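Please predict the structure of the following assembly.
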Amino acid sequence: IQLTQSPSFLSASAGDRVTITCRASQGISSYLAWYQQKPGKAPKLLIYDASTLQSGVPSRFSGSGSGTEFTLTISSLQPEDFAAYYCQQLNSYPLTFGGGTKVEIK
Amino acid sequence: EVQLLESGGGLVQPGGSLRLSCAASGFTFSSYGMSWVRQAPGKGLEWVSGISGSGDSTYYADSVKGRFTISRDNSKNTLYVQMNSLRAEDTAVYYCAKNYFWSGNRRLDPWGQGTLVTVSS
């Protein structure tokens, strides 16, 4: 299953609302997770099962979608949110990741 | 607290072999599947391999099938990946991650800090 993430690069300002899209090549129910990765660090889980917020993750992060189209939204971008974001499908093996979205400061 | 600690990375020549380990603590290791995920320098994440809690079921990405073997020792709370016939394109940071793979609850969390594998002559 291929995941197409867009955009691959996003320039935004603190306080902006940001939306990242992930499209699956076939239906994956709601088995999609979102991860955040900062330079030199391991990825951190943000959202799983498309819309469940991982414990400890700020409520400005939200996820939606099912089937083949999913979105990650950051309602008000904070300085610590500038990072790379990846979607991952866990509907079936082999598990796959989207190509990533790098969010940078405008 | 769940902890995952990878080790075994290093420099290896093309065609060579390497075995990575991931020592787990803070949870009942045998109750959870595990995965290896890698990231080539400056690139995105690539899922490499997964294994069930019992070790009976294993899964691989096409890019490593036939060259990598995932295994686990539940008595030692340790996950392994044996990497053979290594290629330059296998150069990456390798992460292990705890799997949740049940109906209505699927994710990789947490992840280890990673170990770097460099394949070069």
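The mean pLDDT of chain B is 97. The first strand of chain B starts at residue 3 and ends at 7.
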